[in-house]
Amino acid sequence: MEQREKKERRQSEVWKRLKRKKISVAAMFILLALFAMAIFAPLISPYGYEEADLSRGLEKSSREHLLGTDRLGRDILSRLIYGSRQSLQIGIYALTSATILGVFVGSIAGYYGGFIDNAIMRFLDLFNGIPMFLLTVTLAAVLGPSLRNAIIAIAISMWPGSARLMRASILSVREMEYIEAAKSNNANVWRIILRHIIPNAIAPVLVSYTMGMGMSVLQGAALSFIGLGVQPPIPEWGAMISDARSFMRAQPQLAIYPGILVMITVLAFNMLGDGLRDALDPRLKN
Predict the structure, then answer these.
(1) CA distance 193 to 172
(2) Among 59, 103, 135, 154, which is disulfide-ready with 69 (CB 3.0 to 4.6 Å)?
(3) What is the C-alpha to C-alpha distance for residues 73 and 89, in angstroms, rounded to an integer?
(4) What confidence tens digit (pLDDT) does each residue in 181-221 have?
(5) Nearest to 102 by CA among 179, 160, 173
(6) Per-residue b/e over 143-174, b at no fewer than 16 CB within 10 Å?
(7) From the CB of residue 244, how many other CB atoms can be counted at a distance below 10 Å?
């Protein structure tokens, strides 16, 4: 009971600090709006993303099509709304998978130390020697273009960052008194890691997760832009920008609209992550 009260009090303090960063709170509401748009896309979208009218291709803004139409006469606004599903899906699934794997590996390295720690860290050094986006593109090309394979490729390229961060956090808490108390009670190793170490070392990883979400969305858009991500006719912001390349001079808005959404999403995740970093930093307590 006392432990739950401490947890609730800590969460309340974090929320109070986060509220002081108005731009982070605004970013949070922007992201909530984007997620709501993705979830309720069939309800708020004026047309289906596949509905085409070739006779109305490349139309500008009108009453029927608020943001105009693409080369096949498909409503741009509808495709932007549906495209949020794919872009956010890539970001969430890829980064969540990468973070889970990174936390697992980093926990082992940080808790055991010694030879295991050195072996894992040297492997990560080799892994980090490969440029992230080059690795992502190579994996996506080998696996084949699809949403699932893009998620796998991005997750594999991003997990070392979470592993390093988790390992560093665990090194700072593994010698704490409550860890020694758990060891003296002959608690199982995985119980110590899961119940005591990870909950007290996870805060930096949560900040990294939030800020990394923007990078994951950006990488997903980049893969779709070069044809290795979401495949037509399913809309995705990066794929929409790629499809608009041939009409940049005549109809630049075809690329501008999805580009703005990518920019807003990445910026919102970064701003929220910045606010969480300040809110979770115990040195900022009054």
Answers:
(1) 14
(2) 59
(3) 26
(4) 766 776 677 777 777 778 778 888 888 898 899 999 999 99
(5) 160
(6) eebebebbbbbbbbbbbbbbbbbbbebbbebb
(7) 21
Residue from 223, 283, 175, 230 nearest 49 by CA:
230
Report the C-alpha gap between 132 and 124 in whole angstroms.
Answer: 12
Q: Which two tokens stand for residue 38?
A: 């993705």
Structure-token match 């741009």, residue found? 76
Give the distance, in angstroms, between the CA of residue 52 and the centroid of all CA atoms in the same chain: 32
Of the candidates 140, 152, 156, the one whose C-alpha atom is nearest the C-alpha of residue 229 is 140
Q: Which CATH class is domain 13-43+74-284?
A: mainly alpha
Q: What is the distance between the alpha carbons of residues 59 and 189, in angstroms, rounded to a whole number?
A: 64
- Residue 285 sits at φ, ψ, to 5 deg, of -65, 145
Proportion of the chain above pLDDT 90, given as a percent: 45
Q: Residues 126-179: pLDDT tens digits?
A: 888 888 888 999 999 999 999 999 999 999 999 998 899 888 888 877 777 766
Cα separation, 238 vs 223, whole angstroms: 8
What does pTM read for this prediction?
A: 0.87
Gap between the Cα atoms of 216 and 93, Å rounded:
9
What is d(CA 107, CA 101) in angstroms, rounded to the nearest whole number? 10
Instruction: Count CA atoms closer than 13 A to 213's CA, side-chain side.
Output: 24
Q: Under 8 Å CB-to-CB from 172, ≥6 apart: which residues?
A: 201
The pLDDT tens digits of the residues spanning 76-108 come to: 999 999 999 999 999 999 999 999 999 999 988
Per DSSP, the three-state class of 65 is: coil
Map out the domains of the chain as residue ranges. Answer: 13-43+74-284
